[in-house]
Amino acid sequence: MFRIILLSTILTTAMAQPAFAYVDPGGATIVLQIVAAVGAGGVLMFRRVRAFLAGLFSRREEAHPSNEDKAK
Question: How far apart are alpha carbons 26 and 1 in whole angstroms?
């Protein structure tokens, strides 16, 4: 899989033609903001999924006798 991605990246770069397009200076800032938002969202999503899966596969503790006395 890595070889396919590497080969396609090399071929795409080698066959690139000039675009003759103007890139607005603020465009890089928007791209940077998008990358930062995706990164932060990915980290938070990873933490939530990991906590959810840990909750599914962890043992549940039995009720302590002290907790039962407080409920009465």
Answer: 35
Burial class (CB in 10 A: 0-12, 13-18, 19+), 23: exposed
pTM for the whole structure: 0.44
d(CA 70, CA 1): 58
Phi, psi of 20 (to 5 degrees): 55, 45
Half-sphere exposure in the Cβ direction for 26 (13 Å, CA):
0
Reported as a single tens digit per residue, the pLDDT across 42-55 is 999 999 999 999 88
